[in-house]
Amino acid sequence: MHIYFSGIGGTGLGPLAMIAHQAGYTVSGSDKQDSQYIQYLRGHGIENIHIGQNHDQIAAVHDRTPIDWFVYSSAVAIEQPDAPELSFCRERGIRMSKRDELLNQILQDKNLKLIAIAGTHGKTTTTAQAIWLAQQLKLPVSYSVGAKIPFGEMGHYEPGSEYFIYEADEFDRNFLAFQPFLSIVVGIDWDHHDIYPTREAYEAAFAEFVGKSQYAVLWNDDAQKLGLSGSEQHKILDKSDPQINHLLQLPGAVNRQDAWQVAHAFETVTGQPVTVLPELLNTFPGVSRRFEYLRPGLVTDYAHTPPKIRGTLDTAQEVAGDNVVVVYEGLHNSRQHFIKDELRGLFAGVKQLYIVPSYLAREDTSLQLLTSEDLRDLMEPKIQTRTIPSALSDDLQQAIDNHLAAGDLVVCITAGGGGSLDEWLRARYR
To answer: In this predicted model, what pLDDT tens digit does every residue of 259-295 receive, in sequence order?
Structure first.
């Protein structure tokens, strides 16, 4: 079967393309821009990828090897519902779907039990921790994770595996397409306001997701939001449990909490006591763009919601105390509008703040574009005095170098993807 992925460089479709390739399907695809993810996929055997998404390019691919299944990202459908590739496949009756339908087909064909990690923030780290723990336990698993990990691929199919570990995204209601054997909910805080217009709608989607799961692990505050109580089906944990910090030595409270949920999930899967598993999780080496050190003193992190940003700053202050410098790239202009009130005091404990232009994608064009200066002006007056609107430039690199030389910890909160602060950093500090 020939599967064509439109938006193959994204963190949702990229790993799935890798899985399909490893499972023996013919894989090709396209993206609107080149990126490190594209190069990563090409380096791992998926060579038939072209940049640009027009009629002639997909026609040429189809002429060489007829496309059986066209898989497109949510962004493609939202940004351009009459996109040339979509029109091409509609006209020819080629099977079309988002990623969930293809993944469900793979789960069914390979008889895999789904372990799904969902939540507003922390999904990628928790998914990576689950993969790492399975490897340490010598438990064969297939998986998909939305970032590079130093101990495996972004997506992997393991012949003969019983479980599939999946980072289940709530955007575009994707996670509701699945019926997990076990789900981990890492935290619920209203997001994706274009999909869920109210907090109630967002929480209702998570309630439905947990309802589709045979077993679930979640925090007590999230269980209260969903009206759930502890049972054989629902394992409800307390963030104030002293065993978390006693048994886990990972840096950052949020990382220790993520690992605690993973330990409880794998107690269900393997039957091993939850008190034994943290020793293996303490060796977790981390994941790309989640408090990742590009060099000593320079960190890149994908935090993009206020709770996640606060968690990143807490981790940074564990490491560097008052000597934390932040470079902030907002993910989506529309999100900056929604979190304006929380941005006001979010960076209060930061020694110096640099704001670069927000990363734009899936935007509401009716909203004013908030510039770096606009975002600075939203901050409390005391924070504004140590905030510098900036650009991805030599001047910013010089400022970062000066802070590194002074012994500061520079934390770059960045969207990732083509043209982002994260890619700029990797080019400058590779």
So the answer is: 999 999 999 999 999 999 999 999 999 888 889 999 9
Q: 303 and 312 in contact (C-beta within 8 Å)?
A: yes
Which helix (H) or strand (E) covers residue 38, if one does?
helix 36-43
HSE, side-chain direction, 13 A CA sphere, residue 251: 15
Q: Tell me the CA end-to-end span of the chain in Å, nearest whole number.
A: 38
List b or e across 11-37, with b for residues whose CB sees 16 or more CB atoms inside 10 angstroms.
bbbbbbbbbbbbbebebbbbbbeebbb
pLDDT digits (tens, 9 = 90+) for 134-172: 999 999 999 999 888 889 988 999 999 999 999 999 988
Residue 415: predicted pLDDT: 87
Give the span between the Cα atoms of 360 and 141, in whole angstroms: 35
β pairing state of 298-301 and 292-295: antiparallel
| Cβ pair 145, 123 in contact under 8 A | no
Task: Tell the residue number behind the tokens 């709530």, with chain if given.
Answer: 170
| Residue 269, token pair as written in the block | 């899967």
| Phi then psi dihedrals of residue 299, to 5 deg | -120, 140
What are the start-end ranges of the E strands in 186-240?
215-219, 234-237
Beta bridge partners of 51: 31
